[in-house]
Structures are given as structure tokens and as C-alpha cells.
Amino acid sequence: MFSDVLLTVDFDRTLTAPDSTIPQRNLDAIQFFTQNGGAFTMNTGRSVATFWKYLDTLPVNAPFLLYNGSAAYEKGELSLLRPIDLDVWQTMDTMRRLFPEMNLEIQGTRVHHLVDTTPEMVALYEAMQWRYEHAVRGSQIEPFIKFALFGNPTEPTVANMFTGTPEELHRFDEAEETIRRLYGDKVEVFRAAPRIIDVHAKGVSKDNAARALQKKLGRKILVCVGDARNDISMLDGADYAYCPSDAELADRYENVCDCASGAVADVIYKKIPEILGINLDIVE
Q: What dotted CATH number matches 88-201?
């Protein structure tokens, strides 16, 4: 039924509700989709360290696309790594000097290396069960595939990064532009949330990763679902693109229901059958 389709979706506030739980409706729909020939995976900015507990539990049947497209994960192995062509510690020293009020991390293939971070950021990592180490300045960290700047959490939840004062958000706008000005020939800069800036190797994007996977799997149609600015390349590059109705990008792409109500399920049960010309009579 769905054998022509690759569906890649963002994780936070797309597959998940704002409280980071996954609606059961989404899980049921994904199982239905894959059992009927569809290829499904996540296309997320998250890393192995922040996504480890989902790697063996989500009902995907294609390689995970992690780090905003900087790597793929399948059967316990990372592949297609795209390292940043910069000296890791020179870059970290510059970021710390320019943006001392922000939390700084280097996202490795096993753990995140927290650089002189705050107790509040450590509390977020502990609460979310993300894997981390405190970075030892000058130590060798390879491959250098991603670094990120975070606002300081006022509570230990991911949702906390989607809000901020006007002054904080302006400061993140400034940081985003500064990184592009300093390193634009070497990196891609994504805004994963209003108070998260992700930095990757030049040429990395969710779109490139999704299209490479589509070619590998031999699927004719690429359908993507996302909510935030780091999803723009994926949504613009898809054959069909959708957003939850409560997404940051809801005014730019066709909407389905809000993320807590099962936005991915709406795409599977309603939108993909429309694309394929299938009369799908689903009783939920």
C-alpha cells in the first residue's frame, strides 16, 4: 500500500507532544504504515547521547537520521559522519569569549561534552537522562560533528528552550549571525529552538540526508513532517511537507493536527492516502 513512500519526521514537538511524551496514536499509526510497506524514520537534530533510549524502541524500519543530517544510525552503528573542518578547542574558546552567558556543548558520537556549563544545564541533562561528560579543556574530541549553544534552563525540560525573554531571543539571533559571519565557509547553522543553536559541517542538512536515504531505499515519494527552523531544508526539499498546527512554522506549510493530538498519525492516516489516491477507512 505505502511501498513508494519514505516518511521522515522530526522528533521534538512533531512526533512528541510539548511534554516530550509520544502520543500512542502516533505509535499505532507508524506501526500501521510500516506493516503496509511504508519506510519510516526520524530526521532529528538529536544525537545518540540524547536519543539513546529511543534507538531500540521506536518502530522505525529505516536508518535514523541524527545530528540534523550529520550522521545516520542503524543496528548500533553510526555512518555517514560529517565532521566540522575547524579546530574544536579554538572554536570553543571563541564561543565562550563571545557568548559567556550561554551553555556550550560539543556533541560527540557517544556523549555530549559540556564546556564550563551551569548547574541548571547539568540538572536538565540529569532529568532528561542524556549522556554527558564535563569537557576537559584541550582534550582530543573526535569526530567534531556538532556543537550547540543553549540558553540557561529555568526548569529541567526541553520545553524550556522554546521560550525566552525578548532580550534572550535577540541575543540568540545575534549569536546565530555571528557564527555564520565567523565560520560560514565551514559550517551550517540551524536554530533547533528559540534558545538552541546547532552548528554542523558545511553542506549538512536534513534535506540532503533524507534524499540520500530515499535514493538508497529506492522510494519514489518523500514525505516530511517538522515544526521548527532546523526543519526548513527538509520541508522545502520534500515532495510533500506538513507541520503540526501548533508548530513554529505552521504558517509556512500545510497543517495537520497539533503535535499532542498525533500530527504524524494525521499524515499517515489522512495525507499520504490522499497523495496516493487511496480511500483509507481507518477507525481509530
A: 3.30.1240.10
